[in-house]
Amino acid sequence: MQLSIEPNNGIPIYEQLVRQIKYAVAEGIVVPGQVIPSVREMAKLLAVNPNTVQRAYLQLQSESVLQALRGRGMAVCSDARDRCVTDRRALLAERLQAVLAEAILSGLATEQIREMFELALVMATNSKDVSSNDSSSGEAVQ
Amino acid sequence: MELTTRASSFAWVCLMWKELQQIKPIFVAVVVTLLCIQLICGAVMQVLPSAGRIDSYQIMLVVSGLGPFLGALASCGMLFGHERQTGTWNWSSSLPIPWKQALTAKLIASLVVCLALLATLTAIPLFLLLSGPIPEAELVMPPAYVLFNGGFILLELFVILVALTLLMQDALTAMVTGCAILIALHSIPAVFTIREVMSGGGNATLYPSTVWNTLVSLSLLVGTIGMILVFRWRWGTGQSAQLLRWKSSLPAATTMATALAATSLNLTPARWGVAPSQKAMLWQLSWRNSLMLRLAIVLGTFALVAINKPYLPDDSGTALRFALNHICAATCLLGLTAFLADQTRERYRFLSDRGVSPRILMWSRLGPPLVIATLLLVATVAWYLFTGPFPGSTTAPNVFECWGYLLCFASLFLVGAFSSLSFRSNIVAAVVAIVTAGAAAVLLGMWVAIKEELIRISSPTIVDWFVLPAGFIVTPVILFTGICLSSPRWIIDRDAPLHRPYLWCAALALLLPLFIDATFGYLSVPKVAWQGATLQEVDAVVHSRPAIEKVAKLFGDLEVPQLFDEPDSADNALIELNEQLSNTEQLDSLLTGCETRVNQMLDVLSGPMQADADPVAFDRDVGRWIEETALLAKLAMQHGRVELSKRAWRCNRMLQQSCDPITWMKTKSSRQKARTVWTAFGMSEIQALGGRDFTAETMLPAQHDATMGDQLQRIAATVTRELVRGNPSIKEAAARTAAYRTVSELDPFLRFYPPLRWRVERGRAAALAGSLE
Amino acid sequence: MNAIEIKGVSKRFGKRSVLHDVSLNVPTGVVFALLGENGAGKSTLIRGLLGYHRFNGGSISVCGYDPVRQPLEVRRRVGYVSDAPSMYEWMTISQVGWYASGFYPDGFLSRYDQLIFEFQLPQEAKIRDLSKGMRAKVALALAMAFDPQLLVLDEPTSGLDPLVRRSFLESMIDRAAAGQTVFLSSHQIHEVERVADWVAILHQGKLQVVAPLDELKSSISMLSFSMRDSLLALPAELDRLERLHQTQTGRTFQIMARNVDESLLASLRLNSNLFDVKAIRPNLEELYIGFTQPMRETDLSRKESSLGPNPSESTDVA
């Protein structure tokens, strides 16, 4: 699991951690039932405050993405995948909306925006095909 | 968390281990150096005669006594000052160590060091005392109370130094101040006592004991309490508090940039608009370096000299020498301030980063203390010149003594400067400088004693005064070269082991002048033609000498009336003689016993000699026999025993003729008495003996004394010269004569070093020529 | 009980006042960061915590003990790493550990050796031969080996390479995860941002703010907008804000203020003179600058121009 934390980009650290773990679950990098590093280990790995990690884990636990296994730490819930995928979709939708809102506010016409959107979509699909052989999971984004 | 403290022994072990490890290097250095000095004393002791031997032994004892003081100095410096300066004090006090434990550990370590030094340094003297070379009776041992007092002074010194070291920032300044305080404290009663003695109080002890006891007890008490309080404060909340802020040295390299900038502002008068040169800046910075410490040294010296000046003899020559000795010590300290704290504060690196040439830096560092020392010297001399009855004074230092003093100042200054360059810690540098100066003094003293013994002149000649100091000009030159060679490495390489070049240079600087003096000293004595006797003459006199040692057994128990003690006038002597001769009964028995003995004596005197006789007793006996045979002759003659009288006179003559040079001189009074007895012989008595022929045969003419004396001197000179050259046949011959007794025990060693031998021979030739004139 | 309680302390060196009426409480089990410029008084405060000097006023309690009256108790519970730790140069790493172990309970030495092993330091090297980073690691090992309740670090990583800094961070995190308190003074704002729970900012001897970092970041916003006509006065709503810091570049303003709520943003967006109105969470560096740079009077007042053109006329210009 590749996690990287940017403490000064405006998003709280625990929030970044929550998102990245959800992404990892959605991508299938972490499979249901897999035990993730303990609070202490994760904090040392990322060089962040353990309370922050604890907060993130608690939030993930409350959203039923993680569950506590007695004596072994935190593990991914078996049904977490779908939830994470849904959350990720919601996040992406939010980001799309923000970009579109900015585009509208900058004065672009709807047609121009649609053109840019189609172009970007094509480019993204191509690059996904190129890297699809390397990718460990072939889960299509719905 | 479990907070039970460990068994406290473990904490003690750690603390003691740490303290002892810290002080180990300097302890080893001090022990080794002082032991070397003692060994040199011991070696020299074996070859000097008994008077010099005792002096060497005394020096050894002084070194033993000095050991604990150096130990106290070193302990205070390393365990207290060094720790604070390097910051380990702060770190150690951040551990949960109670201040009482920390202080006790340091005190115990200091005690151990002082006792160890004392024990190590008394080993050699004790061994010598027990194994016999030193007759105990002749030792001038100080009385027990002086030893106790020494111990108390040591304690006093220690507590005052520790308290000051902890109070002040710079350990060296603290130690100088502490020593100054102690000296001032003890000068007060001393001043009063000396004044008392001078004005006729006449008390032999140095201090009135009540004043002294009170003073020491008070200062010990105050010092100990002060030490404890200051330690506790510094261990706790007073860690970085800066009392007594001397603006003496610039703090850290980072502020030097500001200092340089500030200096440049000060030095650039606006109207000139020229930036100051690097040299000017460096000079200015160097002046501000340790300025307070230097001023303290100068003022302290002045104070010491001023306090003691009125209580010295009025003779300003002595007073000036006293002052100059103090200035020597001050010069060494001033030299120490030259490179002070540069290495610990890493100033040198700051400067070398800015491309300052090592030479310029070295000169800028040496300059200010040298100027101050010179000013001090000039001021003192001027003061004495204006207040003392120079130049008519007879004890004023002569030109050569002044020259010697100048060399002394230069050398001590450079020793101080070199040690402050080579040793990072101020304390170590100070101790090393003190020990080097002490070793130099001891070596020089030893050398002068050896030379006196070898050359055997009672006071050095003008030439000697010149040659020895001339040799010592090498010392400052070597030291200065050492500084020049070390300073580039010092400025560039932080970890360069500079103590090695120092040790080599110091050893060379001390030993090379002695070597030069030993090797080239002979050139200072003018070559004079050898006027000693030839070897044949020596043979004739020495080998034909009869065995008068055997005579000792013959006259051993005979009670012959003692002749007059002092032949002050011939008339009185005769009167006394006649009085003694009138006691007839005693004399009869005496004569009967004597006859056989006189015959035996004649036999012995005509026969071969014996080798092992006691020389000292021998001279005494010969004198006595000369007197007794003369008296016996007179007695015999009075009782009509003409033959006995003749034989007695013959004995007398043979005894006189068989004297060697020393015996000849020592029996002068006995021979005079014999001559007086002869004058008591009446004309008829002389006729009975044999008249003019007998007279000519028996009595040696008066002027024979002078020629005999000369001949004997020449023979003695030749014998000693051949002994020095290791001539084997002379050794045997010399054993028969007392001339061997005049040879120094050092002379056999001269065989191994020709230049010294040449010096001795030339000296003896000159002495012989002088005495024959 | 708080790990550290400081109430109203001041410190003067001669005439210079270094700390002025500083009060803060450090709860147990947190990583507490003290930020401030050089000369702000951080080291003075920390050294006073350990009883290295007395404060001129106020009271102080460390782990429940007064460092002036009971220094030994404090030192048994507090591990301290100063910014230039000077240990005995002639000792080796193992000797230093042995020496220190004499004054702490059992277990010190084994934990110390474990830490030295983790830090990959050679046990037989002498302290004088170590680099600056290795020395700092040794000092840290010594401070942590007795499992202290409170670890005090005074700019421990200044001048050290990233690997060593990472080691220090991990150690701090370890301690925090074990429930012990870490009190840290640092310049490395990025590190502090990752690892601190609480933050205090000291400026010229006075505490500007003491708060949990998250709270600070969430309550303070960086408000930015641009003006079309710079001669016009700023909107009146801005005056209601508790402003900490304000900068202006050309016609763009950046205001750091507390409690910027949505209604304010909305009203600002409605203002026709302003555009590109944004409110973002500031990072710690921006917060720090905001708290330590004083607001200048000229920033606050705009040019009072009653002769300014009518807002409705300015739209023609765009």
Tell me what you see in this structure.
The complex is a heterotrimer of chains A (142), B (773) and C (318). Chain A has two domains: 13-80, Winged helix-like DNA-binding domain superfamily/Winged helix DNA-binding domain (Arc Repressor Mutant, subunit A, Orthogonal Bundle); 92-131. Helix content of chain A is 59%, strand content 7%. Chain A is built from five helices and three strands, in the order H-E-H-H-E-E-H-H. A three-stranded antiparallel β-sheet of chain A has the order 1-3-2, covered by helices on one side. Chain B has a domain at 538-712. Chain B is elongated. Chain C folds into two domains: 4-204, Rossmann fold; 218-308, Alpha-Beta Plaits (2-Layer Sandwich). Chain C has helices spanning 42-49, 71-77, 93-101, 108-118, 132-144, 162-177, 189-195, 213-219, 237-240, 262-270, 284-292, 297-300, 311-317, and strands at residues 4-13, 16-26, 31-36, 57-62, 78-81, 150-154, 181-185, 198-203, 206-212, 220-227, 242-249, 252-258, 274-280. In chain C, strand 1 (4-13) and strand 2 (16-26) form a beta hairpin. The longest helix of chain C has 16 residues, at 162-177. The radius of gyration of chain C is 25 Å and the shape is elongated.
Features:
heterotrimer, B: 773 residues, mainly alpha, 32 helices, elongated, C: 318 residues, Rossmann fold, Alpha-Beta Plaits, 6-stranded mixed sheet, 35% helix
Q: Quick gist of this model?
A:
The complex is a heterotrimer of chains A (142), B (773) and C (318). Chain B is mainly α. Chain B is 75% helix and 0% strand.
- From the alpha carbons, calculate the radius of gyration of chain C and give it in angstroms: 25 Å
Radius of gyration of chain A: 18 Å
Strand order of the largest sheet of chain C: 5-6-7-3-8-9
The number of helical segments of chain A is 5
CATH architecture of the largest domain in chain C: 3-Layer(aba) Sandwich
CATH topology tier name of the largest domain in chain C: Rossmann fold
Shape of chain C: elongated
Structural class assignment of chain C: alpha/beta
In whole angstroms, the N-to-C terminal distance of chain A is 23 Å
- Number of separate structural domains of chain A: 2
CATH homologous superfamily of the largest domain in chain C - what is it?
P-loop containing nucleotide triphosphate hydrolases
| CATH superfamily placement of the largest domain in chain A | Winged helix-like DNA-binding domain superfamily/Winged helix DNA-binding domain
Low-confidence stretches of chain C: 297-318
Total number of helical segments of chain C? 13
Distance between the termini of chain C: 62 Å
**Structural class of the secondary elements of chain A?**
mainly alpha
Helix content of chain C: 25-40%
Q: SSE string of chain A, helix = H, strand = E?
A: HEHHEEHH
Number of DSSP-assigned strands of chain A: 3
